[in-house]
Design a protein that fits this description.
Elements: E1 13-17, H1 24-35, E2 39-40, E3 43-46, E4 58-68, H2 71-80, E5 88-93, H3 103-111, E6 125-132, E7 135-144, H4 164-174, E8 180-183, H5 190-197, E9 201-206, H6 209-222, E10 227-230, E11 242-246, H7 259-270, E12 273-278, H8 283-288, E13 291-301, E14 304-313
Amino acid sequence: MLRGRSQRLTVAYFYLLTGRAEEWELAALELWALSGVRADGTCGEGRVAADVGGAAYVRFCAETIATADSLDDLVAAVGQQRLTFEGFRLEVHRPAPRPGEDWTEIVRRLADSWEGRPDLDRPRVRLAVVAQHGRWRLGRIVSESRGDWRLPAPPSDYSAALPAQMARALVNLVAAPGDTLLDPCAGVGTVVAQAASRGVRALGVEISKKLAGRAAEYVRSAGAGGWIVAGDARIWDGRYDAAVVDLPYGRCSSAPAGLYPALLSNLRRLTPRAAILAAEPLEALLAETGFRLLAVARVRTGSLVRHVHLAVADP
């Protein structure tokens, strides 16, 4: 593309995000990491069809058939294309702001705008309409999350464990199948299990020998693979494609003085990119320890606000 000249791009695909409203910032960041597409609310549009099979918060990617400002306009736009979908199934998603139309009305009117019979059990074509007040999208699903972040839960008596869906999203921010990943604060092993289940070669380091043993047992029981070792991440060595760091915070996992700067300074030597989770903003500390911040997403759970920092090591 020539600089200084505008070019109109035709939207080819759209994505639907899922999760609680308090998780939408993280969902949007995961979408951007997987596809380069920026979300607008619960949807994102772009020219890239990314594989979202391993996504935590990206429900599906669909090839755009038509977009409109209302159901009437969408039905008209689809009808003008004279489409045939033999053996189709149509899914209706109505994220906020919801339109006034009932989902049965949406299905009936859209299905009448093309040729072909439905097949709900074994569809040959899966269609999705995302219906929002003032914005309607119809598309053919080309990739969908498998939801395989739903691994067996870690020990119930370890309340500081990271939620599985969030842990999967953190892995997706920085790593792809085949990458090596370090979790220097492994805890009960949730991140390692999620990474390994994505085909990432994951190693967790946990300073507590007792907890490291429990984490190794959990990772084995989850059947995901990965390794857990007892060690001090402040002096750990090696080289990894990425890291996910859930820093100690809160009542159950208090951090000793100086832990954050020591751990992050060492992490800077070990990996070029990291997703770093804390209960407070770390922009200044990341800059001091040699990282460049790319983005921040906040996730609220009750009174706790987790700050997800996506950062790369400054050269």
